[in-house]
Amino acid sequence: MYLVPEAVEIIKKAHEINPDGEYLFMCHCRTINNDTFNERLRKYCNDAGVPYLSSHKLRFTVASTLKAAGVDTAYLQKTLGHSNRAMTEHYINETVEDPKNIEYQLMNALSIC
User: Which residues have a Cβ under 8 Å from the Cβ of 84 and sit 6 or more positions away?
Assistant: First the structure.
């Protein structure tokens, strides 16, 4: 998966904080909750100079962009960890302007607050 340079920097910062963790975002050898994750994500985005999007908004944006690019809903459902198709369809209701250009859409997603 292609990552913009700013995303690579965010991942590097997270890894520096927890170099031996089983997961990228952990605290005291445990996975972190959603609020803690978003607090850290906000800090990393600010440090990298990119607009912050909550993890939930990112899930909507990525799911919508991939669906618009032709990715099968069943695959998205499995990837997102949804037990039913209706929840996945809820995530892919956003309008995507250019479904043939995933990189363009994901880059633009960083500018939505």
Answer: 77
